[in-house]
């Protein structure tokens, strides 16, 4: 039998679940305490306010992305790595979707978090650019440095804005699903289409088919 999570860990995990389903703006510390069956005072013993909980969750998200958004050690990248990066990104986006949905509000509300996010964003862009250069070195993508830089930036814009795009076009944040987020990852992959080396196209085509979600499901008529 698994040990019961510590109170602090329970607060973090349940807050994440509530933020993801209801949106961070709609959840107060009183809501979190009631959901956990504890007094607000008990919650404040572990976290002084909601911003501290959000900062803790951002740290978890940051560590998750840092753990996979890096070049493999001791070998070149392969098409299989492309699958790994995209699926890891999809899982992180889904598990911490409230961060993507309410990002501007969260950063405006906490200057320290905003400073952390800027460093995180720069690190992600640096690592993503290194990964794309790795695909070029492996002969999977045929690109020059300026194209790599542009592809990196465009991919980042899609990843960080996709959840908000879904919320604005669908009108219901609770309607989000992993399938809808998968289309966002497909959009990132689609950016590379014109740069794929011929020998890599069959394997990547299979990945396209795995990630594709029809547009009418994403933007209902």
What does this structure look like?
The chain has two domains: 1-48, Arc Repressor Mutant, subunit A, CATH 1.10.10; 53-218, Tetracycline Repressor, domain 2 (Orthogonal Bundle), CATH 1.10.357. With 221 residues, it is mainly alpha-helical. The protein has helices at 7-22, 29-36, 40-46, 50-68, 79-95, 97-101, 103-109, 111-137, 145-170, 178-190, 201-211, 215-218.
From the coordinates shown, what is the CATH architecture of the largest domain?
Orthogonal Bundle
CATH superfamily of the largest domain: Tetracycline Repressor, domain 2
Structural class: mainly alpha
Give the CATH class of the largest domain. Answer: Mainly Alpha
The Cα radius of gyration reads 19 Å
Tell the overall outline: globular
Query: What's the tally of helices?
Result: 12
DNA-binding region: 28-47
Domain HTH tetR-type: 5-65
GO molecular function: DNA-binding transcription factor activity; transcription cis-regulatory region binding
Keywords: DNA-binding
Record the SSE blueprint.
Layout: H1 7-22, H2 29-36, H3 40-46, H4 50-68, H5 79-95, H6 97-101, H7 103-109, H8 111-137, H9 145-170, H10 178-190, H11 201-211, H12 215-218
Question: What key phrases describe this protein's structure?
Answer:
Arc Repressor Mutant, subunit A, mainly alpha, 0% strand, TetR/AcrR family transcriptional regulator, DNA-binding transcription factor activity, HTH_TetR, Tetracycline Repressor, domain 2, 12 helices, 221 residues, DNA-binding
């Amino acid at each position: 039998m698994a040990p019961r999570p510590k109170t602090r860990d329970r607060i973090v995990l349940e807050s994440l679940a509530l933020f993801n389903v209801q949106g961070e703006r709609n959840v107060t510390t009183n809501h979190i305490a009631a959901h956990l069956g504890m007094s607000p005072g008990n919650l404040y013993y572990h976290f002084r306010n909601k911003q501290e909980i959000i900062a803790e969750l951002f740290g978890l998200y940051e560590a998750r992305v840092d753990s996979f958004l890096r070049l493999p050690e001791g070998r070149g990248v392969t098409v299989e790595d492309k699958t790994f990066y995209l699926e890891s990104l999809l899982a992180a986006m889904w598990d911490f979707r409230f961060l993507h949905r309410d990002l501007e509000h969260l950063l405006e509300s906490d200057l320290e978090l905003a400073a952390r996010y800027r460093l995180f964003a720069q690190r992600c862009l640096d690592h993503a650019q290194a990964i794309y250069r790795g695909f070029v070195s492996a002969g999977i993508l045929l690109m020059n440095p300026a194209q790599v830089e542009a592809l990196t930036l465009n991919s980042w814009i899609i990843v960080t804005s996709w959840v908000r795009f879904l919320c604005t076009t669908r009108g219901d944040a609770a309607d989000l699903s992993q399938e809808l987020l998968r289309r966002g990852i497909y959009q990132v992959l689609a950016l590379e289409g014109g740069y794929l080396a011929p020998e890599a196209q069959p394997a990547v085509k299979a990945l396209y088919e795995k990630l594709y979600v029809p547009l009418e499901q994403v933007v209902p008529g």
